[in-house]
Amino acid sequence: MDIVNSILENNAQEKDNRKSTIVNKDVEVETDVGTLLALDYSNVDLKVMRSQPEEYLKSLTRDNVQILINKIWELPTERIDEVIVAKLPKQEFILPRSRQVPKPKPLTKWQQFAKEKGIKSKQKSKSKLKWDEELQKWIPTFGYKHNKAEEQKEWLVEVNNEGKAMEDPFTAAKAAKEERKSKNELQRLRNIAKTRNIKIPKVGLPTREHFSDSQQLSQAMTIARTSTASVGKFQDRLPKEKDAKGIAKQVPGMKRKAEKIPQNLQEEKRWNTDLADSILKSNTKILREDFSIPNIKPAKTERTKGKKGTKIKGVRKPKAGKGQRNMKLKAGGRKRR
Predict the structure, then answer these.
(1) Which residues are CB-neighbours of 37 under 8 A, at least 6 positions away?
(2) What's the CA gap between 254 and 226, in Å, rounded?
(3) Phi-psi category of 153—alpha, beta or left, where left has phi over 0 and alpha has psi -120 to 50?
(4) What is the Rg, in whole angstroms, of the alpha carbon atoms belonging to the chain?
(5) Quick one: CA dihedral 212, 217, 218, 222, positive or negative?
(6) pLDDT of the residue at 164
(7) Other beta carbons within 10 Å of 191
(8) What percentage of the chain exceeds 90 in pLDDT?
(9) Are 310 and 304 in contact (CB under 8 A)?
(10) Residues 40-86: tens digit of each pLDDT
(11) CB 210 within 8 A of CB 201
(12) Of 129, 141, 314, 335, which one has the fewest beta carbons inside 10 Å?
């Protein structure tokens, strides 16, 4: 009977090409489900590896992946939108990362308010079309076709107020829509500034948060007045308005107070050292890197002073007879009277 059962099992395995989910290993495979990592420390069969490398590696990979999947199925699972999801535990094996772990996206002002008040947003339907009773047809929920359908519905607008009878209601509706879009864009930029901890001025008059001191307010007034092409020369001043102190270097064109002349040698020395330190510590480049120094070649002729006067180097002296006279070539001599 045992022989029959073994034969039947062998026949069933031969007919079914699928392998079993149970994998037996000589050395237990170390797994980290949090990072989906499996470490196999078993010995490699070199004979099979050399004879059939691809098949051996495929079978080894299949067994290790099967062990990792079996570990995942042991975790608690739940069904979300017709998909079975398993929550992975905290990772044990620390893997190096090239970048930082992404931080969670901060909540907007409305999302934070809804979370505090317990307001739950309704899930939007996946369908992009909705039935309109007035037009008696399917129209998209957004897009240019949706706007065209709204224009078809609002082809006639009733005006109840007599004072607004001369105004164009369509132009007013378009302006109101642009205003809402601008308001939403402003709120979006405020949310970005809030997440990045950037202080922005509030709408309306400035408060103590922006100008906590009267000196700051006077500096802002002076900078605003001198921010013209004439540097505030033709701008009217308020009664008893004076220029702010300490911003002459920041505002071009403003008169600066003359610096005091050093009274003694020590003050002059300290003034010069402070000036040198400020130049050396500054990030501005004193010398231009793109400026090339011309290569000046030395002159060909150089004059050197000697006993008999100046001599010219580099110029060849005409050759003469060197004191030797050939009487055969020249006949006669100098005539005398």
Answers:
(1) 31, 93, 95
(2) 9
(3) alpha
(4) 47
(5) positive
(6) 64
(7) 16
(8) 4
(9) yes
(10) 888 888 888 889 889 999 989 998 999 898 888 888 888 887 888 88
(11) yes
(12) 335
